[in-house]
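Help needed: design a sequence for this.
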C-alpha cells in the first residue's frame, strides 16, 4: 500500500535532513515546480495551505549545501519517460552526500500539461482546452489577480487595497463600443472601414520583420482578427502579468488563447521589456524566443543590452536602483525579514482609447497609455512603519522618497521607453491592439461580423523568460590631493 502524502513527506524530510527555515533552510515555492508537473494536486495543496494560513511550499532546501526535498505533486507527462513514480505525486529527496531517493504517494495523478518543458506555448485548435483554462484560473488565484482580471471581457478592474493584487503588466483599463459609429445611421450601410493610425510609414514597414507574419499590413490585419476572436468568442481581453520564481525566471499569467497569438507576443514582450527598462538592461526578441531555460550567467551577460550605454549620448536615463541608492534608500534584500525584503513594487502599462475621428468610412483612432505603480509593505515592515507613525505622526522619510522615485520611473516609462527603437515598434503595435478591442465590440453591437479567418499559424509566447538584468549603483571613495587634481586637469 502506498504512503499518504504526509507519510512520504516525512520520509523525504528524514532522508534529506534539511535544516528548518531560519536555521539555514528555505522553502521551495510551488511556482518553482516545472509547469509540466502541475495539476489538481498542485492546486489543492496551495489552497489547503492558504486556508490554514500556512506558508505555501512544496519542500525545503539547504541554502548552504546541496540537500533538499521537493514534491512533484502530479507526477509527469509521458515525455518525461515511463517510470512508475511518474504516474503519481512523489517527493525527490537528496541528502548532503548527494544521494537521491524518491518517495511516491497517493493515487495516480495527471499534470494539466502532458508534454515536456519546452519554451513554446500550447498547441492545437483556435481556442484553449479545458485543462489549460483550469490552469489559467489557478494562476489568477495563486497570483491574487482573479478579481482584478474579472470573468468577462470588460477590461482590467482595479481592486481595493489589501483585497487582491493589481497586475504588474500590460492591460486595458476598460473597453466599450465606439458610440459615434452606432449613432451614425450612414454606418449601417457600410461594409468596410479604412483605418488610419498615427504610425510612421517607416515603422509599419518593419512590423513584418519583428512579427514574422509577412508585411506590416498583414500584421495589422492579424492583430484585429486575433482580438476580435478573443473578445467575441473567448470573451477575453488581452492581458498579461509576468511573475518570477525563486531563481528569477519569469513566467506569464496570460489567457491561454492569447498565448498563441501575435497579440500575446506584443503585450508579453512589452511587459518583460518594461521590467527590464526599470532595472537597466534587456534582451532582444530573438534571444528571448530561443532561450532554452539555461540560467548560465556568462551566456546571459553576453546577451544583455545595457540601457545606460544605449541611451547615454541622447537621453538622461537611470535605472530604479540607481535612483534609489544615491538618495540613501535601501533597495536590496532585507535579510532580517522573513520575506527577505521590505516592500514589493509593480509597474503596469494600461492602454486606453482617447478618441476616434471619422470621415465617411475612414476612422482615425487616437490611443494612449497610462503607467501606474503599486507600493506594498511586507507585514513585518508595515508593523515597523505603523509603530513609527504612532510615535512621530508621519511616515518614515524614506517612504516619501521612494514614492517620489517610483513616480519618476513611471514618467521614464511613459516618455523615454517608447523612444527606444525596439520598444517603439511594440508600442505602435499596441495601439492597434487597443483599438481592436473597442472595434470588435462595436461591430458586435451593430449586428456585424468582421470578415476574418482564425490564423492557422500560431505564434506562441514563451513559457519562461530569463531573469531580468539589473543595473546596480556602486559608490567608490577616491582619495585625491590638490596635487592629484592639478595633474589630472593639466593639459599637454
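Sure. Designed sequence:
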Amino acid at each position: 500500500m502506498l504512503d499518504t502524502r504526509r507519510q512520504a513527506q516525512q520520509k523525504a524530510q528524514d532522508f534529506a535532513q534539511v535544516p528548518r527555515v531560519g536555521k539555514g533552510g528555505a522553502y521551495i515555492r510551488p511556482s518553482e515546480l516545472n509547469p509540466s508537473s502541475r495539476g489538481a494536486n498542485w492546486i489543492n495543496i496551495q489552497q489547503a495551505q492558504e486556508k490554514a494560513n500556512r506558508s505555501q511550499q512544496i519542500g525545503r532546501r539547504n541554502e548552504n549545501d546541496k540537500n533538499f526535498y521537493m514534491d512533484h505533486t502530479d507526477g509527469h507527462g509521458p515525455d518525461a519517460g515511463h517510470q512508475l513514480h511518474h504516474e503519481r505525486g512523489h517527493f525527490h529527496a537528496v541528502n548532503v552526500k548527494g544521494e537521491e531517493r524518491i518517495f511516491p504517494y497517493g493515487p495516480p495523478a495527471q499534470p494539466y500539461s502532458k508534454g515536456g518543458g519546452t519554451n513554446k506555448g500550447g498547441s492545437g485548435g483556435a481556442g484553449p482546452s479545458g485543462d489549460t483554462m483550469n490552469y489559467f484560473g489557478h494562476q489568477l488565484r495563486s497570483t491574487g489577480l482573479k478579481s482584478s482580471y474579472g470573468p468577462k471581457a470588460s477590461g482590467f478592474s482595479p481592486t481595493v487595497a489589501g483585497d487582491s493584487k493589481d497586475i504588474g503588466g500590460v492591460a486595458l483599463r476598460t473597453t466599450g463600443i465606439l458610440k459615434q459609429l452606432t449613432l451614425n445611421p450612414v454606418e449601417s450601410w457600410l461594409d468596410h472601414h479604412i483605418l488610419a493610425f498615427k504610425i510612421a510609414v517607416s515603422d509599419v514597414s518593419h512590423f513584418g520583420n519583428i512579427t514574422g507574419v509577412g508585411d506590416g499590413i498583414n500584421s495589422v490585419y492579424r492583430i484585429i482578427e486575433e482580438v476580435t476572436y478573443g473578445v467575441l468568442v473567448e470573451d477575453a481581453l488581452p492581458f498579461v502579468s509576468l511573475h518570477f520564481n525563486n531563481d528569477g525566471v519569469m513566467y506569464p499569467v496570460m489567457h491561454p488563447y492569447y498565448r498563441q497569438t501575435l497579440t500575446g507576443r506584443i503585450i508579453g514582450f512589452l511587459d518583460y521589456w518594461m521590467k527590464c527598462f526599470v532595472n537597466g538592461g534587456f534582451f532582444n526578441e530573438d534571444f528571448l524566443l530561443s532561450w532554452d531555460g539555461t540560467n548560465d550567467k556568462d551566456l546571459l551577460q553576453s546577451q544583455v543590452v545595457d540601457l545606460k550605454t544605449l541611451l547615454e549620448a541622447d537621453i538622461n536615463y537611470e535605472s530604479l536602483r540607481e535612483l534609489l541608492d544615491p538618495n540613501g534608500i535601501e533597495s536590496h534584500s532585507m535579510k532580517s525579514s522573513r520575506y527577505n525584503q521590505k516592500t514589493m513594487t509593480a509597474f503596469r502599462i494600461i492602454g486606453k482609447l482617447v478618441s476616434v475621428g471619422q470621415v465617411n468610412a475612414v476612422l482615425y483612432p487616437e490611443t494612449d497609455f497610462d503607467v501606474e505603480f503599486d507600493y506594498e509593505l511586507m507585514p513585518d515592515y508595515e508593523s515597523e512603519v505603523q509603530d513609527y507613525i504612532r510615535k512621530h505622526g508621519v511616515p518614515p522619510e524614506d517612504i516619501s522618497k521612494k514614492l517620489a522615485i517610483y513616480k519618476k520611473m513611471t514618467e521614464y516609462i511613459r516618455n523615454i521607453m517608447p523612444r527606444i527603437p525596439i520598444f517603439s515598434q511594440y508600442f505602435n503595435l499596441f495601439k492597434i491592439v487597443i483599438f481592436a478591442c473597442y472595434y470588435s465590440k462595436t461591430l458586435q453591437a451593430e449586428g456585424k461580423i468582421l470578415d476574418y479567418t482564425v490564423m492557422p499559424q500560431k505564434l506562441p509566447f514563451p513559457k519562461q523568460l530569463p531573469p531580468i538584468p539589473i543595473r546596480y549603483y556602486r559608490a567608490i571613495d577616491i582619495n585625491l590631493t590638490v596635487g592629484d587634481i592639478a595633474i589630472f586637469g593639466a593639459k599637454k
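The chain is about 35% helix and 15% strand.
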